[in-house]
Structures are given as structure tokens and as C-alpha cells.
Design a protein that fits this description.
Blueprint lengths: L7 H15 L5 H13 L2 H28 L5 H28 L2 E4 L3 E8 L3 H7 L12 E4 L3 E8 L2 E11 L2 E9 L1
Antiparallel strand pairs: 1-2, 2-6, 3-4, 4-5, 5-6
Length: about 180
């Protein structure tokens, strides 16, 4: 697991270090950066960090290549190619990070508890995702709790307690935080 945790200092340092190491590989570096960001962050944070990393990577590589052009090491045509690769890389980094974070299920398992975060397009899709963890047909009917910006659903499935919160992330996209405990 990468150092994206609750520690904001580590997040900031990693956000600066990642593009400095990977952005030098045209096209693949930004894809790798977007992939690693998408694996470790939810959708909104992935968008934020992929934009920051794209800006940092593009600025550093363009500045260094510009300096090399000024010293006569490379030509103007090469600098134009670098700028084009940076634009394409930024688009790819952001797109890959959003795709991975949207389609990934993050799961934490402890002795008597399972927590999972995932995104769905409709509330009916939640039942399909629950089949990965248990048989929803063996669960009690759901009990709902409503608050201003989320729906809480509680169910009993044999000796397990199933709780999940559904919040709207964007139009037609919902974030689900699932907790199964004994």
C-alpha cells in the first residue's frame, strides 16, 4: 500500500515525489502515476491529486527541457514534443486515476469486521455488489436511517450485522461504505 493514509504530510510529499520519478517516461509515466493515485484514493481525492501531480510533472519536465533548449542541447521541435506529451500525459493521468478509483473496491478485513468502499451507478447495483460478500436473500429486510446527505441501511444476516451508508458523489454516482461485523 502506498503512503496515502490519514497523514497529510505523507500525502503531500508523495504527491510531489511521484511525478518527479515517473513523469520522465512519456505517456507511460503519467499512466503509472494515475494508476497509483486511483488505487489509493477515493474519487474526489484522486481527481485532486492527479491534477496536482500533472501540474508538478509537466512544469518540472517542461522547465528542464526548456533549460536544455536554451543551452543548445535540444531543438525547438523537441520542446514542442515535450509539451504535447505533457498535455497528453496530464489527460491520461487524470482519466486513469478517476477510472481506477471509480471501479475499485477497497476492502479492509480484521478479525471480526470487514469494511469496503465502492461506487455504484444505481441503488439496485448495491445488491449485486453485496453478493460478493454474502447472500442478501438470507438477510432481514433493510431498516433505513436518513440524514441530510446519506442513507444508512442496517440488516441482519444470520450472526452478522450488515451496515452500509450511501452518499451521492455526483449525479448518478453513489459512494457506498459497507461494514460487515459479527
Amino acid at each position: 500500500m502506498l503512503p496515502f493514509t490519514q497523514d497529510k504530510k505523507k500525502e503531500g510529499l508523495f504527491s510531489i515525489a511521484l511525478p518527479l520519478f515517473s513523469w520522465w517516461i512519456p505517456i507511460m509515466g503519467p499512466i503509472i502515476t494515475g494508476f497509483l493515485i486511483g488505487l489509493n484514493l477515493d474519487r474526489k481525492k484522486a481527481l485532486k491529486f492527479s491534477i496536482i501531480d500533472s501540474i508538478i510533472g509537466s512544469l518540472v519536465t517542461t522547465s528542464i527541457y526548456y533549460l536544455l533548449k536554451e543551452f543548445g542541447v535540444i531543438s525547438n521541435l523537441f520542446l514542442v514534443a515535450v509539451i504535447i506529451f505533457n498535455v497528453l500525459g496530464s489527460i491520461l493521468c487524470i482519466s486513469v486515476s478517476l477510472f481506477i478509483s471509480r471501479n475499485m473496491t477497497r476492502t479492509i478485513v480484521t478479525n471480526n469486521r470487514l469494511e469496503a468502499d465502492f461506487y455504484v451507478k444505481s441503488l439496485d447495483e448495491i445488491e449485486e455488489k453485496l453478493k460478493n460478500y454474502l447472500d442478501p436473500a438470507q438477510c432481514t429486510p433493510p431498516k433505513y436511517g436518513l440524514s441530510e446527505n446519506k442513507i444508512e441501511i442496517m440488516r441482519k444476516c444470520g450472526n452478522m450485522s450488515l451496515n452500509y451508508e450511501v452518499t451521492e458523489d455526483s449525479p448518478n454516482l453513489y459512494k457506498v461504505h459497507l461494514v460487515i461485523s459479527t
